[in-house]
Design brief:
Elements lengths: L1 H13 L4 E2 L8 H4 L3 E5 L12 H15 L3 H10 L5 H8 E7 L7 E8 L1 E5 L8 E4 L6 E4 L10 E8 L2 E4 L3 H6 L5 E5 L2 H10 L1 E6 L4 E9 L7 H8 L9 H10 L4 H5 L6 E6 L16 E4 L9 E7 L6 E10 L9 E8 L1 H9 L1 E11 L3
Parallel strand pairs: 4-17, 5-11, 14-16
Antiparallel strand pairs: 1-8, 2-3, 3-18, 4-18, 5-10, 6-10, 7-8, 8-9, 11-12, 12-13, 14-17, 15-16, 15-18
Helix pairs in contact: 3-4, 3-5
Length: 367
């Protein structure tokens, strides 16, 4: 049995983008977060009482529609319905724990994302030729937990070839295929790439209709930051490695677009939604109040107080937010992606956001 388990673990290394399943039961601090946690007085969090806690409370209750399915949040979500005073709710019902890195520091990387708007059509044409794909029929998500309890946290994505399961196609291969089903087609492959990075967005069709598209699945390959590669090449500077800077470089060097984009083997598949941007929690995202996180350290549904600054305006951000999303690049003990909403300002702020920040999770007392 151990030999078989070892061989399966070797397969996992091939599926470098395998994901962690959200645990249904979270009871101890070790189960809640793998990060080092330092308990602090909630009243000592910088900017706590200056924040709009009522708005944060409303978003918490909205996200409870999905997070209450987890044992950690079931009681507190029920209790939230009996409170009207947001400050009293958070200060009396939660313990505050500041996240720390392995080296003992309390600061990590905060980036931003937004909901982009693309132009498209239901019909493929010379203008609209870049597909927003649905989840392929030949891609399988493999849950190993029924056979191997040791691997209950992992899901693999692959395809069947002969009598074997192999890693699913990477970005370059997917882009070369013409047998996958598309929701629609858009007019810009660079914008399509960044739609995948954001995870959801809107498409204004040539009929005048605007549709919402959201994350449905991923091909199982590990995310690779193309901005980092361009920095290493020396074609971009640190200040130019923003979303806007990367787009500008690619548009000025069209002969390199495919080469650069294909460095990121990860590929996102979409579904058409009635709602605007929806996160991994399954609720509609609220600008400046929802975060994408690494679930190993912050469970979805968790209130998180963030202390950072807007990299574009340099204004302080001291906000109580709710973890409601994940992302292929959002990995680490102190790591978060700040949702800025939609529109030109949101794109500007999200594209330029790269700052140090402190994250404090509010853990329900559940008593």
């Amino acid at each position: 049995m151990r030999i078989l388990i070892t061989s399966i673990l070797f397969v996992i290394t091939l599926f470098t983008g395998c994901s962690l399943k959200e645990p249904a039961k979270l009871e101890t601090l070790a189960e809640i977060s793998q990060a080092k946690l330092k308990k602090i007085n909630i009243k000592d969090i910088e900017g706590f009482y200056e924040d709009n806690l009522l708005l944060a409370f409303d978003v918490f209750k909205k996200d409870c529609k999905r997070s209450q399915r987890y044992k950690l949040f079931k009681n507190i979500c029920q209790k939230a319905q009996t409170f009207t005073n947001a400050s009293e709710f958070f200060t009396t019902n939660f313990h505050a724990y500041e996240l720390h890195n392995e080296n003992g520091t309390n600061k990590g990387l905060i980036t931003g994302y937004y909901e982009p708007l693309l132009n498209g059509s239901r019909i493929k044409s010379e203008k609209y030729k870049y597909p927003i794909y649905k989840v392929p029929n030949d891609m399988y998500t493999i849950d190993l937990s029924t056979l191997y309890p040791e691997l209950k946290k992992y899901r693999l994505r692959g395809k069947i070839k002969g009598n074997k399961i192999i890693p699913y196609d990477n970005r370059e291969v997917i882009n070369s295929r013409d047998d996958l089903e598309a929701i629609c087609y858009v007019d810009d492959k660079i914008d399509l790439f960044f739609l995948q990075i954001q995870g959801s967005g809107k498409v204004k069709l040539d009929t005048g209709e605007t549709i919402n598209v959201g994350y449905a699945n991923q091909n199982g390959h590990k995310y690779f930051a193309i901005g980092r590669a361009l920095l290493k090449e020396g074609v971009l500077t640190k200040t130019g490695a923003s979303l806007q800077g990367i787009k500008k470089y690619l548009r000025e060097n069209p002969n390199r677009i495919d080469e650069v984009l294909n460095k990121n083997k990860s590929y996102i598949f979409f579904t058409e939604n009635k709602k605007s941007a929806t996160g991994a929690l399954g609720t509609q995202l609220v600008a400046n109040r929802n975060l994408a996180v690494d679930r190993r350290y912050i469970p979805l549904g968790m209130p998180v107080f963030i202390n950072t600054k807007n990299s574009v305006t340099h204004k302080k951000i001291n906000n109580l937010m709710i973890a409601a999303d994940v992302g292929g690049a959002i990995k680490g003990e102190i790591r978060a992606d700040f949702f800025f909403g939609n529109g030109e300002d949101a794109e500007l702020y999200a594209g330029g956001m790269k700052a140090k920040g402190v994250l404090t999770i509010l853990v329900p007392k559940n008593k």
